Amino acid sequence: MLNLHTELNTALVAAGESFAVATIVGTEGSTPHPLGTSMLIHRDGTITGSLSGGCIEGAVHAAALDALEHNLPRREHYGYSSADAFAVGLTCGGNIDVHIAPFTEHSPMHQMLETYSSFNATDPVAMIRRIDLGSSGSTLIPNPSHLSLTELAQLLIPVVGKAGSSLAATLCYSLIVSGRTGTINLAQDTGSCATDSLELLVESRLSPPRMLIFGANTFAEELLKLAPMLGYTSTLCDARSSFTLQPRFNAAHEISTQWPHLYLGAEIAAGRIDSRTVICVLTHDPKFDIPLLTLALAQRVAYLGAMGSRTSHDSRMRDLRAGSTPESALRALHSPIGLDLQAITPGEVAISIAAEIIARRSSSATGQSLKSIAGPIHGRAKPTINAPERTQHLTDIEVPSWT
């Protein structure tokens, strides 16, 4: 539901309007959108968002209007559809489970959604809610990465009950502090041999990762335009203020005219460089490149690339080795920067850089044409986390039984 920030705000502003939110809560195989993606369906039939790109939206729309009519949540499963044009299913071959929840002014989650809609669209936040049918309960957590396990357990008491809060917090914790989405399956004691399933959907978003671009040139200008599309906040740094402060670089969230290695050093000291940070060195000038890369290669970042010809690359590597940069660090440097797309124009070069950054996010990415490889097109869905047996210990703490 986190992807519907603006749409929820608009829907909530419309006084007295009822709507339903359909959310992907389970995926298997190739699916168009990931776990947690939501679509909003208004009572008048209008739709905002998409779950599948069109192949199941009609069926979800009908189910959502029925949920609104009876004011009851429901869960639908959609699987592979063959060539039958009248079948409802995913032509991509995957399977998805969709949770549909009606919302009115008096719904239990209404206050939480109002609070969420008051946040900025990029604020770090986690949303945890019950998705087992017949149950409600939810909590909204600002700045989830700063939360302790004990604090999370307290926040989950209204959602799962006091007896289950410690176990639920332990299972949810890794998701919310890392900005991931997943489902948690628990078993709640009913006082008999049978158990009821208790399922949580955990959606979490951290503050956006950073893209640092060094070098004010036409390639940087185009790459700055792509940064927000990839989810990054961007910084342009170049010591030549007459170049850096041109209006054509206004797409940058931040501009610095410090020397590149001094700027990066200050950001490292301030704790603003982390394992999600992307660094693109486009200066191709040794007096800037070498001190900057020497410092950058000592950091654990998501991606580090440097622009230049093969000749410049060879010279750069010799200089870095002469400065005692270890070979293990040099292997992390993407130089020359970008994928081989035979890019020529600045826009094409920026796309080749962006493509390499995307490919670097997953160890299973090949960077090849999809027509030449087999297997799922989309990345594997994040697994559902199931509660352990009651006698199992988790993080050296015995999990309490449910009562």
Description of the molecule:
By secondary structure, the chain is an alpha/beta fold. The protein folds into three domains: 1-120, no CATH class; 122-207 and 382-403, no CATH class; 210-337, NAD(P)-binding Rossmann-like Domain (Rossmann fold, 3-Layer(aba) Sandwich), CATH 3.40.50.720. Helices cover 31% and strands 22% of the residues. The chain has helices at 5-13, 57-70, 110-117, 149-160, 162-177, 218-226, 241-244, 260-269, 286-296, 310-322, 327-330, 346-360, and strands at 19-28, 38-42, 47-48, 74-78, 95-103, 125-130, 138-142, 182-189, 195-205, 210-214, 233-237, 254-256, 278-281, 303-306, 385-386, 393-394, 397-398. The protein has a five-stranded antiparallel beta sheet, sandwiched between helices. β13 (278-281), α9 and β14 (303-306) form a beta-alpha-beta unit. α6 (218-226) packs across α12 (346-360). The longest helix is centred in the middle third of the chain and has 16 residues, at 162-177. The protein is elongated, with a radius of gyration of 24 Å. The two termini are 31 Å apart.
Secondary structure topology:
Layout: H1 5-13, E1 19-28, E2 38-42, E3 47-48, H2 57-70, E4 74-78, E5 95-103, H3 110-117, E6 125-130, E7 138-142, H4 149-160, H5 162-177, E8 182-189, E9 195-205, E10 210-214, H6 218-226, E11 233-237, H7 241-244, E12 254-256, H8 260-269, E13 278-281, H9 286-296, E14 303-306, H10 310-322, H11 327-330, H12 346-360, E15 385-386, E16 393-394, E17 397-398
Parallel strand pairs: 8-15, 10-11, 10-13, 11-12, 13-14
Antiparallel strand pairs: 1-2, 1-5, 2-3, 4-5, 6-7, 6-9, 8-9, 16-17
Helix pairs in contact: 1-3, 4-5, 6-12, 8-9
